[in-house]
């Protein structure tokens, strides 16, 4: 019992609330390391978890664990689910505010603010799979003992060399280690001790008190720590009952429970520790409360430890033979383990370490604490990993898990096993989800395990274009509506704010007016609600009220060169003249010559009718034939009114422009020509705008242009669309523009050369729910490069109607399954469900705006 006496004495003294700080062992801070009680130098690195593992990572960690450490050196490797996303919200806000000046500025700012509030609320409430929004950090702490309280020159020099070597090793494999100074470490320790919503560490205006010691500030003023038989409670005491039990204020209490690893599968693979974080493969189980997965490592004096192992092995060799093996079958397994351990330390130079793994859960109430512990324990058992809840040793073990506070006393608690350093990498919890590709977030999402994920199409060294594939009912329209809204209310220039804090209310923001401009070609009115929500948007449909001209020439400013539109106009005219079988090479060349001559002569006054007349007057029959085939688009032709110079061109000045093609569904030829004409004019508008803002061009229902045989009836149409899209998409990056192709089936991208080209030339690929057989076909045809694990994950992507949709985002070698969970009113606005649409129509018809109609629709829907 003597080994626990110092801890139990501290626990007993906690009845005196003024002495709470005495259980922490921080003595001081010297330049870049902490001086610890009892003699010791400690450094804590706050790292980014790795979104996966590979051989390079394994080798780097193995090299760290294999170093020659002084006897009784300790290492804490900890994955921590931080219940705070304030940094991400601050970064989110810096691209918001005054981004869409004019009639819609207040609306877009309001929607950006609503999203920020929704994200913040999910830190404190469970999402649909039990996860809460959070940020994962990987903490790597090294503590080396010293002979006295203060290190001598030799000890300090050796320690600095060791830490520098470890830091460089962590940097080399992407951990981005940040050596924590006192202010940053204090913030994290305060977070461990108080996870409540109103904890003082959540207030960015509160700074450390220079008049108090580091240890005195870990526990918030007025709060204390109370040890119970089964855990720890921190918070603000309300009263002490007659039996000595402390009652805490409801909104200021954190219940801490610890489980210790007691068994693993017979064989584990590198990366298996990621399973502890949550069910990343299917998303069915996630942990809600803040938690820490902590692997503690103690390096004993190597000579004695090796001698002890040699003696134990010698005894086993003598016993594990003959009849005794029949009576004690476990001896053979023990001998095998000792033989492997001996080979690693004797022949491969591995070090001997005592290591144990613990899971620490931080909950807001006693009831939730019990439930979270039971849920996590049960989940771990499904992975054949057993954790045992702690009781009386919760206090001492918790102190050992606080960064920098682990010492050689840990080995006395018998919660460890003896390993060679080669095994430690398998027990290191350094993996979590990909956090996204930007620190200036535009499109916020969350992963299955609750990691906040910030994404921006434009934050890449490659192209900005994307392919989105989603089966019917998987949430495609909701996702695209959401992406569009996020780009409309965000800008290019940093320095903005949503002015949500009281002291910001009198601030004046610059009028950035750099929110994106978005163009959508749709068939099915999926974006009508979104367009009608904005005053300055344009919703263009080809019904009886269409009063514009699609004559392409007025929108042309440059015919040749890198951004010249001449080749695209040629493609459009080829599609108009010969939609099924195309034109001959001779016809194509002559058409280009004639179009160029007309442009040089008439410029923007050129028309389809003039070109038709010139073709009909051509001396060669093959060009007169082209003229005849184009007559339906000239004045007097059945489609002539759509290309007349007597009507104004579409100006495409709205920041959100939706072109609805539903009325053209029965005329594939006209639909194609309209698409080509509109793409041409939109491309001109995008190039005219330059790089002052981001631009998005989205082609919905693209499956009809990506599927089909090149020799079939649609062959030439498909070829025309392919030429047009590839020509436009290649130029988009130069003007900060992204082209998005949206289709229903993953197989659409392999049906012909157009789909294959789009699949090959879009850096971003987004997949919602897919038919598993389609995933297998894509894998077998090798049309898309991904690992076997990624293909299997793709099959698990799903949508729960009315709750969330999942998206698997691919970018080069990276991938992540994210979830989109929206508040009910926003989901109602974006929904294409027939019942939701009827509700919205009903309340819109009564004169309500889109947001109010959505609120009323949600109320009625929940009553049904």
How would you characterize this protein structure?
The protein is α+β, with helices and mostly antiparallel strands and 864 residues long. It has three domains: 2-93 and 135-222 and 259-361 and 388-427, no CATH class; 442-537 and 654-684 and 694-832, 3-Layer(aba) Sandwich (Rossmann fold), CATH 3.40.50; 558-653. Helix content is 37%, strand content 19%. Strands 1, 2, 3, 4, 5, 6, 7, 8, 9, 10, 11, 12 and 13 form a 13-stranded antiparallel sheet that branches. Helix 3 packs antiparallel against helix 4, helix 15 packs antiparallel against helix 21 and helix 19 (668-689) runs parallel beside helix 21 (715-732). The longest helix has 22 residues, at 668-689. The protein is elongated, with a radius of gyration of 33 Å. The model has no long low-confidence stretch (mean pLDDT 89).
**Largest sheet, strands/sense/barrel:** 13 strands, antiparallel
Query: How many β-strand stretches?
Result: 25
Please report the number of helical segments.
Answer: 27
Overall geometric form: elongated
* Category from helices, strands and their pairing: alpha+beta
